[in-house]
Amino acid sequence: MSIDISRSNFTPGRHRMSLQSTHAPPGEQSINWETLKARCIGRIDLVQKALARFQGSLEEDIQELENATKRNDSNDVARIAHRIKGTSLTVSADRLAGFALNLERKAEKSLFDVEESLSEIRDECCRLSEIITQHREESTA
């Protein structure tokens, strides 16, 4: 299962964006692997399970976020951004958590000027999807 995130639409099952197309600095880690491994008591099977659940929840959360934004529902946008922040922190996806926190704060004030935050979240979700898929493939090889 993978995430396809574009500027205006979400479609599960494909990748469009490359890692280089994200706004994030290339040297900054999307996932803090050491922290994640420590949370999973060093068990790779638990890391894989956590990442799979995280990836699946992102697909639903991004779709809901897109829908809430189209409805101009700032309360829902803030709530979903908060949920993304929490699930991101669970798997040590600290950069996505930061982007989600930024969106949550903006949405609590209004929905004006949230497109950059949405774009950061979309890009980071795509980046994470690629990283998680690559990690899964390397772990099964």
TrEMBL record:
Top-level taxonomic group: Bacteria
GO biological process terms, semicolon-separated: phosphorelay signal transduction system
Gene Ontology MF terms in the entry: protein kinase activity
Residues modified as Phosphohistidine: 82
TM stretches of this protein: none
Region annotation Disordered: where it falls in the sequence: 1-28
Ranges of compositional bias, category Polar residues: 1-11, 18-28
Gene3D superfamilies: HPT domain
Keywords: Phosphoprotein
Domain HPt: 43-141
Name of the featured protein: HPt domain-containing protein
Organism: Blastopirellula marina
